[in-house]
Amino acid sequence: MQSWAETLIAAQVDGAALTAAAAATALPAAAKYTLPPNFFQAIGQQLIVEASGRISSVITTPGTARYDVRFGATVVFDGLAALLETAAGYTNVGWMLSILLTCRAIGTSANLMGQGMFTAVNLLGVPATAPKPAITAMLPWNSAPAVGNNFDSTVSQVVDLFFTQTVATGSMTLHQYRLLRPN
Predict the structure, then answer these.
(1) Considering only CA atoms, which of 65, 68, 60 is closest in space to residue 83?
(2) Region at 80 (left for phi over 0; alpha for psi -120 to 50; beta for the rest)
(3) What pLDDT, on the 0 to 100 scale, is given for residue 35?
(4) If we measure between CA atoms, which residue out of 120, 155, 113, 154 comes closest to residue 135?
(5) Whole-angstrom Cα distance, residue 61 to residue 1?
(6) What is the reported pLDDT for 135?
(7) Out of 49, 135, 137, 156, which could bridge 99 as a Cys pair, Cβ 3.0 to 4.6 Å?
(8) Is the preceding peptide bond at 140 cis, omega within 30 degrees of 0?
(9) 172 within 8 A of 63, measured Cβ to Cβ
(10) How high is the pLDDT of residue 129?
(11) Listed residue (70, 56, 64, 63) closest to 17, CA to CA
(12) Distance CA 57, CA 88 (A)
């Protein structure tokens, strides 16, 4: 069996610096890919979301970092709110995100099973003293994987990556993004 990963789209510029305590797209407009109607033709088809960038958080009350994948306004994968480190503040440290989405149902009530990894230096659990390794959080954070919200796979869907922080004391900027079709 032969297979390869096809890059459907990649960001060519940074996303906006997100600083508000609200959900917002992390992607620049040109990096939003529109899946055609009936893109998901069979159960088991997959998409991979890969992203990286920089994030800042303050000491004591850093809040949380949350990534979700949306098809239009529908959240098809929610990474849930990952706790950020409270022992130190961080300025412009790197992060990486990888999310695997597998089609579980097609049609007007289609859905995806998703799991991912969020790696960053400022996730809760990083040692307070050097050396400071990055920590990888399994997503969804502190929860069993679950099928995401239903969407209609018979119509076109715009794929978007959202970021939410619970406090307006930090920032996150996406530098790199790509959406892959592995099969």
Answers:
(1) 65
(2) left
(3) 98
(4) 120
(5) 50
(6) 86
(7) 49
(8) yes
(9) no
(10) 63
(11) 56
(12) 9
Measured CA to CA, the distance from residue 105 to residue 149 in angstroms comes to: 11
For residue 107, is it left (φ>0), alpha (ψ between -120 and 50) or beta? left
Instruction: Please give the structure tokens belonging to residue 17.
Output: 């610096």
Q: Which two tokens stand for residue 82?
A: 């990952």
Q: pLDDT band at 16, cuts 50/70/90?
A: very high
Count of residues in the chain: 183
**pLDDT higher for 89 or 98?**
98
Name the DSSP class of 17: P
At residue 60, the pLDDT reads 87
Query: What are phi and psi for residue 134, nearest 5 degrees?
Result: -80, 155
For 143-160, how does the pLDDT look when each residue is reduced to its tens digit (9 = 90+)?
999 999 999 999 999 999
Assigned token pair, 123: 């996730």
CA dist 171 and 165 (Å) reads: 8
